[in-house]
Design brief:
7-stranded parallel sheet, 3-stranded antiparallel sheet, binds zinc ion, 2 domains, 14 helices, binds nicotinamide-adenine-dinucleotide, Rossmann fold, alpha/beta
């Protein structure tokens, strides 16, 4: 299907910009719909002009939730990749209607068009998130593989950071989270991502449109928003390192995430677009390796050769999970996917890019202040 037309919502964002370049380099034409959200792009949008200058990329500035131009955007295209979303987990906890409008309703409008219009779209891909799992998967030596309940405020207040077995309340061992793990969203953002998945599964399933749902882990790399204080721990830390500020680490620092390089995520999206075998599956996309927040902060200080130090604060945010890393066996066997860029090499590439960017204001203290005032951070 190379040389086909791929429509990308949210295509001027972090992952979208990389995806568009990759698709162009393989001969696809690309149509983008993006509203250039000021939280991501600033009030005077600073987007990569090279995308707009490429005659194979057609950009429509429009808000998915209200535009009447979905038909013009999608008509005659071969594939759709749906990336447009609000993405701040903590922010979603107090902008509930807005997150629902953009993420759930925006997706619903796309589905409405797809099931009601005559069109040529042969594959749709949704960017979902590991956040739909809530806590990752664990093994209890008595009860077997379990998904723990969200940690209670009482447990967090007492510094009992590790989740306990929902069956016997015993200790747990972290394991890779497979796609069959029961969804248990712990934030409004996660609930809207799960809603997006359900809309895709039901609408595309019932109308016979081949689809793929990809649950990204923590994506990082060149081009991620340095401005948005609500997302991207590596962006937030990199600004503080450049300013010589302390890196505050929540809980005891041993909470972990699966950091996956943006180039690997783009590869997973393209493989799923192209694989004939992907017709209605859900896949994890990650590196398959957990890294503690304290370790990633220390590695980042090293690659920047910064003077900052880490400080484990014991503070915590409601809605944060303790651990999650991806089981990527299903994606590997369906598409041959293999992550290529390890964390050390990826962080070095990220740091080189960050150093070439203007130094943003440090928005972390202010963002945390808002969370404290709303009782969402202690
Ligand atoms: N970056 C990650 O770590 C990560 C992890 C898991 C899932 N995801 C998912 O991947 C997708 C892309 O993430 P990203 O990191 O590139 O985010 P991003 O914020 O950089 O890009 C999102 C783009 O969507 C646009 N947008 C927002 N609201 C819109 C609307 N109403 N109409 C049209 N466009 C709109 C924004 O202007 C932005 O350009 C999202 O769906 C996100 O939930 C990202
Ligand atoms: Zn148990």
């Amino acid at each position: 299907m190379s040389n086909g037309i791929v429509c990308v919502t949210g295509g001027l964002g972090f992952i979208g910009s990389h995806l568009i370049r990759d698709l162009r380099s393989r001969g696809y034409s690309v149509r983008v719909m993006d509203n250039l959200s000021p939280q991501i792009h600033g009030h005077l949008p600073a987007v990569d002009g090279s995308l707009a200058l490429d005659s194979g990329v057609q950009v429509t500035r429009a808000d998915l939730t209200v535009t009447s131009g979905l038909g013009d955007f999608l008509q005659g295209a071969d594939c759709l990749v749906h990336l447009a979303s609000e993405t701040g987990t903590a922010q979603s906890m107090y902008e509930i209607a807005h997150y629902n409008a953009v993420n759930s309703q925006g997706t619903a409008r796309l589905m409405d068009w797809l099931v009601n219009a005559r069109h040529s779209i042969k594959k749709v891909i949704l960017a979902s998130s590991r956040s739909i799992y809530g806590e990752g998967a664990y093994r209890c030596w008595t009860c077997g593989v379990v998904t723990p309940l969200p940690r209670t405020t009482g447990a967090l207040a007492a510094g009992r950071w590790e989740p306990e077995c929902p069956g016997c309340l015993g200790p747990l061992q972290l394991i890779a989270t497979p796609e069959q793990s029961s969804p248990a969203p712990a934030s409004i953002y996660a609930a809207t991502k799960l809603a997006q998945e359900d809309l895709f599964r039901i609408a595309c399933g019932s109308s016979g449109i081949p689809f793929g749902i990809l649950r990204f882990q923590n994506v990082y790399g060149e081009g991620q928003s340095l401005r948005n204080p609500y997302t991207g721990i590596l962006s937030i830390f990199s600004t503080r390192i450049r300013r010589g500020l302390v890196l505050p680490i929540f809980e005891d620092g041993l909470e972990s995430r699966d950091f996956v390089f943006v180039g690997d995520v783009v590869k997973a999206v393209r493989l799923c677009l192209e694989a004939q075998t992907v017709v209605g599956q859900t896949f994890n996309v990650g590196s398959g390796i957990p890294t503690s927040v304290l370790d990633v902060a220390t590695m980042l200080i090293q690659v920047f050769k910064g003077r900052s130090v880490t400080e484990v604060t014991g503070q915590y945010r409601l809605g944060d999970i303790r651990h999650c890393y991806a089981d990527i066996a299903a994606l590997r066997s369906a598409t041959g996917f293999e992550p290529e860029v390890g964390l050390e090499a990826g962080l070095a590439r990220f740091a080189t890019w960050v150093a070439s960017q203007p130094l943003p204001e440090d928005g972390l203290d202010q963002a945390n202040q808002v969370l404290m005032e709303k009782g969402l951070m202690k």
